[in-house]
Specification:
- The protein is mostly helical and 528 residues long.
- The chain has 16 helices and 2 strands.
- A two-stranded antiparallel sheet has the order 1-2.
- Strand 1 and strand 2 form a beta hairpin.
- Helix 6 runs parallel beside helix 8, helix 7 packs antiparallel against helix 8 and helix 10 packs across helix 12.
- The longest helix is centred in the first third of the chain and has 60 residues.
- The protein is elongated and about 135 Å long.
- 41% of the residues are buried.
Length: 528
């Protein structure tokens, strides 16, 4: 072959001819074009694949859900078709439960019955509530002329009437609410009076007594006792309490001619109270009474100027409680063993503080319960001091404290035993204003025939014994002669305690729903 053969050798390097541009920038751009095109194509393919994946996956999920909806629709339609057989004659859903008793046939029937089966395992009034715990609320029974379930209730939930100041409130078809002062005014007071066993004669008796108290008040606002106990704090508290029990306060209002008298009395107590300790002076007996009066005045009026005085008085009671037995004695000290008489006034003051919405230390209440337990004897009675012999007076004090602090209702065996042994056996035929005051409250909450028998005697005895001579300066009061407490408290104490006893119908509304006994009583209806 000729060396000049024009076919090039196979291993010869290709010759690339590149046209020179005036600038090197253009040469570099031409070299990058293939890479850019390849990257663009690669990412376009990735995006397309992702879009296709999302669309496919969404269609996969949508299919079963649509099927499920269709299944549900078919099921619902089938159930509705079955129900149509009952709509012809009965629209009550419970008609489908052929083997289940419905509420209309139940022994435990509410005031308003609704269709459906009864669940006997549910706590009354509280859905899925603790049946072993003390009940705090009850369904509204049919009024005072039928027996309810005897449980305490401490709520301010709505009722089904129109008492002023309460949502729904209290009415013949509703329930009174323990822990409030709503029974002391308006139509509620009139209804509580009538259904509890009061009469026009007993209310006239109260009016005469209040007018007598007004005539005894001093210009300073205080009252004084004519007995051996010259204690202005105790006397002023005793003078105030019957007005507060009647729903009267220091705020001007229609049918309240006593507002200025009450204001002067409250101002007197405020001046006498120690600003540092809250102590009203005069001993714990006087301090307890003054605290009750201040707490009730605040609870009724909601006057913010009274609150600090009432709260300070509550704290003083807490600080004076005996560390060991949980009681109180004559002075504001922790060192003396408690007695039931003094402790009873302190416990009632604590309860008044709770009712008024004040802060009552839980430890104080727990220790007070301890004192009550220590004071109860094997015969279910209470003595003057723990492990002392039972007396009917101290038993009445102890039982009232148990009702307020521990929800001891009329079905409590120890309450029943104590009432039968120590209260019923000492009827209102005896003259004892202190005992009247406590025992009447106990039986008012206890209710039933026991309350009816007690109230009939108590009410008529007090009306008969009130001074009725209009020309006498003692008109409207009660004489201290013959009363075991007459020499100590004199006419003022006798009159105050007797007035509070006659005001029991509305002063504190019943703690327990029981038959008050007078809803259909012909004698009471005639008296009105």
């Amino acid at each position: 072959m000729s060396a000049n053969n024009s076919k090039p050798k196979t291993n010869a390097a290709p010759v690339i001819v590149i046209r020179e541009d005036p600038s090197s920038v253009g040469r570099y751009l031409l070299l990058m074009v293939p890479a850019l095109l390849g990257s663009l194509i690669f990412h376009a393919v990735l995006v397309a694949a992702f879009v296709l994946y999302v669309i496919f996956n969404q269609e996969t999920r949508t299919g079963p859900e649509t099927d499920e909806i269709k299944k549900d629709t078919i099921t619902t339609e089938q159930v509705e078709e079955k129900k149509e057989t009952f709509t012809v004659t009965d629209i009550d859903e419970s008609a489908q439960e052929f083997d289940t008793n419905i509420q209309y046939m139940a022994e435990r029937i509410a005031d308003v019955s609704v269709p459906g089966s009864v669940n006997p395992n549910e706590a009354v009034g509280i859905k899925d509530g603790d049946k072993s715990a003390p009940p705090v609320n009850l369904p509204a029974p049919g009024g005072f002329t039928t027996k309810g379930q005897g449980g305490p209730f401490e709520t301010t939930g709505p009722g089904n009437s129109m008492a002023v100041g309460e949502v729904g409130g209290y009415s013949p078809r509703g329930m009174p609410l323990q822990g409030t002062f709503y029974g002391r005014s308006g139509a509620t007071r009139e209804y509580a009076l009538r259904e509890g066993g009061g009469t026009k004669a007993s209310e006239a008796c109260v009016t005469r007594g209040l007018q007598w108290l007004i005539r005894q008040q001093q210009p300073s606002g205080a009252w004084s006792m004519s007995g051996n106990e010259a204690n202005e704090i105790a006397a002023t508290a005793l003078g105030l309490l019957p007005f507060l029990a009647a729903g009267k306060t220091h705020k001007p209002a229609d049918k309240n001619p006593y507002d200025k008298n009450i204001l002067r009395a409250l101002n007197f107590l405020k001046r006498k109270q120690d600003r540092k300790t809250g102590y009203f002076t005069g001993g714990m007996y006087a301090h307890g009474l003054a605290t009750i009066a201040m707490c009730e005045a605040y609870g009724l009026s909601q006057d913010p100027l009274l609150r600090p005085h009432a709260q300070a008085a509550i704290y003083l009671i807490a600080s004076a409680q005996h560390d060991t037995d949980g009681g109180w004695r004559y002075g504001p000290t922790k060192t003396a063993q408690g007695d039931m008489s003094i402790s009873g006034w302190q416990i009632m003051a604590l309860k008044s503080g709770m009712m008024a919405g004040l802060n009552v230390p839980a430890k104080t209440v727990a220790n007070a319960k301890k004192f009550l337990a220590l004071s109860m004897n094997t015969d279910s009675g209470y003595g003057y001091v723990p492990r002392g012999g039972s007396t009917y007076r101290m038993t009445a004090v102890g039982l009232l404290c148990r009702q307020y602090l521990e929800n001891w209702g009329p079905s409590n065996p120890k309450m029943i035993d104590a009432v039968q042994k120590h209260i019923v056996t000492h009827s209102p035929d005896i003259q004892d204003s202190y005992y009247y005051y406590y025992a009447t409250q106990v039986l008012h909450h206890f209710g039933g025939e026991t309350w009816r028998k007690w109230n009939d005697k108590m009410r008529e005895n007090l009306i008969r014994k009130q001074e009725s001579n209009e020309k006498s300066p003692n008109f409207g009061s009660w004489a201290p002669q013959g009363d075991p407490w007459g020499r100590v408290g004199g006419r003022l104490m006798m009159t105050s305690l007797n007035l509070l006893t006659l005001e029991v119908y509305y002063r504190y509304l019943p703690l327990y729903y029981r038959d008050a006994g007078y809803g259909k009583d012909a004698a009471v209806q005639k008296a009105f």
